[in-house]
Every structure is written in structure tokens, then in C-alpha cells.
Specification:
This protein has 339 residues and is α/β, with parallel strands linked by helices. It folds into two domains: 143 residues, Quinone Oxidoreductase, Chain A, domain 1 (Alpha-Beta Complex); 151 residues, 3-Layer(aba) Sandwich (Rossmann fold), CATH 3.40.50. 24% of the residues lie in helices and 27% in strands. Strands 3, 4, 5, 6, 7, 14 and 15 form a seven-stranded mixed beta sheet that branches. It is globular, with a radius of gyration of 21 Å. It starts with a strand and ends with a strand. InterPro entries: ADH-like_C, ADH_N_2, ER, GroES-like_sf, MDR_fam, NAD(P)-bd_dom_sf.
């Protein structure tokens, strides 16, 4: 290895999964990292994110983002420290966010990095509450399915990264009652005691439709859907006339090997005159300054509570990914790559 390069490690896609992904689909590789050219920076990644949408990129299928390439490093949001720079506007020592995660070091053009202010929040917050997950939650309850004063709001996967923020923001924007779904009594307890939800339904403990009816006997006005499947069906039964649904994700079907049927009660969307609207956060990156300007203050004053599930080391990135697909995380799932 020459003096102009350094050794680092990255996770590559070894093969495409059929159904649920496993360790055989990933490969940990040592690579040579070159010094940055003019207009580039070298970043030592300290934190990386794993997110459910990455499962879709493992398939060779057309979508809103191109598929990962076999034999090449995966991508995703990361935070790191600039250790070499050929760009005056991004000095050595700056903390930046970028999209070349799944590796310990990244060389990238300056235009692909954003300097973050670690004086108002921790670096890892820019992958969670101040990152795309937080912005997604904000968009869901303010624009996609706007919460109004006195609304009853239901959030699925409510102990996860997007759901835990969405429920708290719904309360900030006027919800009278916020209900979340989670797997198991411990997560349900955490929703109420730590994240401030009024009630929790346990999708492992019987009929969602019946539990939701008991938690919201007069129905729900807004549903933030991170799960799809039976959760969407239960929400359709519980929706009030003119209710709003934000379609954020449908993790229940990400490992499906065949097309999944829609909810059998989808006609309720017509009879109740519901609004179902999808959201892709990449359409709204221009809203980041507005959102961070608000959310950083909420984090600082403690009115926005966040939690993280952290695994240590690049070699644990696949395990973290499996965990987020299986609901093992509370709050944001992160991998710490360096201190």
C-alpha cells in the first residue's frame, strides 16, 4: 500500500437475498483509501445508520433509489470527522453528514457532505431525530397527514426511529390522544412512560383491530403507517370520516418473495373519504433547515425524547440491519464505527 493510501474496511453486498437477508449476503473487505483530490474530503466515519428502506435496495428491482451493486460497498447515512480536505469551506476537524456509510472511511466530493453543528446536538442526533428519520416524522404529521387540534393519532412501529418521534410531534401539534403499536409489553410500557403516548397496542398479543377499537373507541383521525399489512387494515377499520393516513413504510412486506395483497377492507378509504398519501423524505430535503431549527431546541429542552440501540464496529453493521428489520431496536438503530 503506497504512502498516498490508507487501510480501511467496508461492507459489500455479496449476493442478493431471496426473502429474509442473512450474513451470506454481506462481505467485510479491507480496502485502500486514497487521499482526496481537488474538491474532495476524506472522512473518518464515526457513526452510521441502518434503515428499513435498505432492504429494497438489496433487490435488483426498479424503485425510487437504484439497487445496491453486488461486489460494491453499500450506502447509507453516516456522520464523521474530516481528516483531510482539499476544500476551503470544509476544514479538517469538521463534523459532516453524508451518504457513504457502511465503511470506516469515505472520500467524497464536498458537495456530497453537509457540515453539522455539534454545538446544538450530538453528532449521532443528525442520523436520528435531526436526520432523515426525524424529518420524515415531522413531514408525516405536519404536511402528509396533518395533525389538528384535538385529533386522535395512531402510529405503528411506534418504538422505532420514525414512530417514536412522530408520536411526540403529533402531541406537540395538537393531538388529544396518541396511540402506538409495538411488539411486546416492555416496548409498550416504554411508549407510555418514556415517549409520552397515551396507550400502546401489542401486535403480538391478539387482534390489532380489537385492541385499537378499545384504545380509541370513537375512532382515529390520523394514522402514521410504518408497517402496512394488518396494521393498515386495523387502521382503516378505526379511521373516522375524512381521516388522514401518512404512508411512510410497510416493513411487514419487505422480505416478501411474492406480491402481497392489499387490505381486504380497502374500500373503507372510499366510504370514509380518507386521504392516503405517501412520503419520501428525499423529496423534502429543502425542509431540513426549518426542521432542525425547531427540533434542536426540542432536544435541548427535553421535550423531544430519543433513544438509540447501538452496536459497535463495522463488522456489526449487518447484524444491526437484521435487527432493525426484525424490530429489535428501540429508537434509532446505529452502528458506532469510531469514538
Amino acid at each position: 500500500m503506497s504512502d498516498s493510501t490508507m487501510a480501511s474496511r467496508e461492507i459489500r453486498l455479496a449476493s442478493r437475498p431471496v426473502g429474509e437477508p442473512g450474513p451470506e449476503n454481506f462481505e467485510l473487505v479491507e480496502v485502500a483509501v486514497p487521499q482526496p483530490r481537488d474538491g474532495q474530503i476524506l472522512v473518518r466515519n464515526t457513526w452510521m445508520s441502518v434503515d428499513p428502506y435498505m432492504r429494497g435496495r438489496m433487490d435488483d428491482a426498479e424503485s425510487y433509489m437504484p439497487p445496491f451493486e453486488i461486489g460494491k460497498a453499500l450506502e447509507g447515512s453516516a456522520i464523521g470527522e474530516v481528516v483531510a480536505s482539499n476544500v476551503a469551506s470544509i476544514p479538517v476537524g469538521a463534523t459532516v453528514s453524508h451518504f457513504l456509510g457502511w465503511r470506516e472511511h469515505a472520500v467524497l466530493d464536498a458537495a456530497e457532505a453537509t457540515v453539522v453543528d455539534t454545538g446544538i446536538a450530538r453528532p449521532q442526533d443528525y442520523l436520528g431525530a435531526l436526520g432523515t428519520t426525524g424529518l420524515t416524522a415531522y413531514l408525516a404529521v405536519t404536511e402528509i397527514a396533518p395533525v389538528r387540534q384535538g385529533d386522535v393519532v395512531f402510529v405503528s412501529a411506534a418504538a422505532g426511529a420514525v414512530g417514536s418521534v412522530a408520536g411526540q410531534l403529533a402531541r406537540k401539534f395538537g393531538a388529544a390522544r396518541v396511540i402506538g403499536s409495538a411488539g411486546g409489553p416492555e416496548k409498550g410500557k416504554k411508549l407510555v412512560e418514556d415517549f409520552g403516548f397515551d396507550a400502546a397496542v401489542d401486535y403480538r398479543a391478539g387482534s390489532l383491530t380489537e385492541q385499537l377499537a378499545a384504545a380509541a373507541p370513537e375512532g382515529i383521525d390520523v394514522y402514521v403507517d410504518n408497517v402496512g399489512g394488518d396494521h393498515l387494515g386495523a387502521a382503516l377499520d378505526a379511521m373516522k370520516v375524512h381521516g388522514r393516513i401518512a404512508l411512510v413504510g410497510m416493513i411487514s412486506g419487505y422480505n416478501a418473495t411474492e406480491p402481497l395483497p392489499g387490505p381486504s377492507n380497502i374500500y373503507a378509504a372510499a366510504t370514509k373519504r380518507l386521504t392516503l398519501r405517501g412520503v419520501l423524505v428525499s423529496d423534502h430535503f429543502h425542509r431540513f433547515p426549518e426542521y432542525i431549527g425547531k427540533a434542536a431546541g426540542w432536544l435541548a429542552d427535553g421535550t423531544l425524547h430519543t433513544e438509540e440501540t447501538v452496536l459497535e464496529g463495522i463488522e456489526q453493521a449487518p447484524a444491526a440491519f437484521f435487527g432493525v428489520l426484525g424490530g429489535a431496536n428501540t429508537g434509532k438503530m446505529l452502528v458506532r464505527l469510531a469514538s
